[in-house]
Amino acid sequence: MQKIKVDKEPSNDNQNQRLQALLLLEAELRRQPTQMALSLWAVNEVRAVVDYSQCFLLRMNRVGKARVTAVSSLANVDRNAPFVRWIEQQVSKVSKERAKSDGDAQAQIIEISLAGNTSKHNNEVYPFQQTVFLPFYDRSGRMFGGLLMARSKAWQEAEQVIAVRLAETVSHAFQALTSQKRLRVWSMPKWLGLGVAGLVALAMFIPVPMTTLAPAEIIADEPVIVVAPIDGVVARIFPDANVAVKRGDLLFEFDNTELKAGADIARRTELVSQARLATARQAAFSDPQVYRQLAIAKAEVELARAEKIFSENKLARTIVRAQKSGQLIYTDRKDWIGKPVRTGERVMEIADVKRVVLRIDLPVAEAINLRNGADVRLFLDANPLKALSAKLRHASYFAVEQPGVGLVYRVVADLEVGGERKIVPRIGLRGTAQIFGEQVFLGFYLFRKPISSVRQYFGF
User: Would the pTM count as exceeding 0.85?
Assistant: First the structure.
């Protein structure tokens, strides 16, 4: 232990002024509203009556370890600083030694040496080696903190008396600002920490359902797909998008300029071939050579008639009508007018608004083992607070490329709209689907992705 050097009091020190300043400080101390304000005030304002170079305020936790909570001239404390850790270690050591000893349990000044602390890089020694530690005691006599004052010159007896009085006042102020049980800085006991760790370890074996999240959309169940019957350019779309249509209503029309001309030419060709056949029949009675050409003339008439029928049928297919009643769904009229399409290309669909299903685009990275009939919950973007229930119908075997998402599995689920639920979600609504899979341990559920990443990285 370090011996505190004490000089004789100089004859000319002004004790009356110090006592007056002490009374003013005590009055100001009582006006501090919080423990933080009191801590900063104690390490900075006490310098008015006690001459020190640096002051530290420490608080003890419930296991007796000291923590620096305030340092003079600093707004915040870096508890990772080597010197701060050194001070905490020294004060904690002294506190534990005094707790085990049977001596004076409430010493007003405790000797603490900081001479053992040097920089690891340049061997610099802490310059303020004259230190005093003024402990704080609670009502039961247990130490819950203290002030560590350091300077380079020896301490005088009168200064120690004033410092002790101020420390007692600060200690009383801390006790007034907090309850007896919370005077020490809270720290989890070792047994409690082990117990919590054990409970967490046991909780990792709780069985929970494996779940995954994926974007989803309400789509029609088995809609009638309206495709282009011929190659051509869309000239006109009659009904607007997302309106109800009836069977036989006009949907869209192709540009028929060339087809009209082709049908007219086919009709004229048929008339010409019929005229040639009539002429050949009249001449066949008198000219055997013409009679031999009669079969060719008949074949030409049949060919012309077939071309006419084909042209007229193709012209008739330029107008597309609804094959059933329902809701007409397509993107936008401007997207299709003037657009060339191929035979069989999808243009529209007619859906029954009361028959809807849930389509889920499950990313490959989020895929889990899926089974038919698994529970699914849908959180619509339009109503995220109310989940819709569904049952998984099937999932695609192969992943497909989805723009903006990547490879996804197409999953279809049937919405449960029976019972109390009368309103069927509108086609086109989007949201997030939660798919429930098999039962797994909570630990695997939480660390599935890290485990997968580690296995992919190390290859086992």
Answer: no
